[in-house]
Amino acid sequence: MALKKDNDDKLNNLKNKSESVKPVNKGTAPKKLAPLPQKKAVSEKKPASTENKPKKRIVISSELPDYDAIRAEELEKDKLKKARAEAERKARAEAERKARAEAERKARAEAERKAREEAERKARAEAERKAREEAERKAR
């Protein structure tokens, strides 16, 4: 009950725009209200990041926007975005496949060239060996 009376006294003092609350009990120290935080003055200059942005106009009318059409438009944009991303992914995959095929073709051509050179070298070595043997046989 004492709390209710204390709160009632505080409320009455606030209503009367009193500076401080009168003590409820004579034995306690007087209570003061905490000062309310003051609002800072709003500067007139806008931040630089908002100066370049186009301002949106708010139009108040009795008609509501067609939310279904807006939603459908957003879904269509998302589909187009996904389709573009998929097309880009496929193009990259195709380019990588072509690059791998070209690298394999070059590697195969290089291997064939080396095999031909090796076969020619062996054929020359064999011809030289036979020529030496023939020369030795004739020399005997």
Topology, element by element:
Blueprint: H1 2-15, E1 20-21, E2 31-32, H2 48-51, H3 67-139
Antiparallel strand pairs: 1-2
Structure characterization notes:
With 140 residues, the chain is mostly helical. The protein is built from three helices and two strands; from the N terminus they run αββαα. The protein has helices spanning 2-15, 48-51, 67-139, and strands at residues 20-21, 31-32. It has a two-stranded antiparallel sheet with strand order 1-2. The longest helix is centred in the last third of the chain and has 73 residues, at 67-139. The mean pLDDT is 82.
Q: Summarize the amount of helix as a percent range.
A: 55-70%
Approximately how much beta-strand content do the residues carry?
A: under 5%
Q: What structural class do helix, strand and pairing data support?
A: mainly alpha
Largest sheet: 2 strands, antiparallel
The number of helices is 3
Q: Strand sequence of the main sheet, in spatial order?
A: 1-2
Brief write-up:
This protein is mostly helical.
Entry keywords:
mainly alpha, elongated, 140 residues, two-stranded antiparallel ribbon, 3 helices
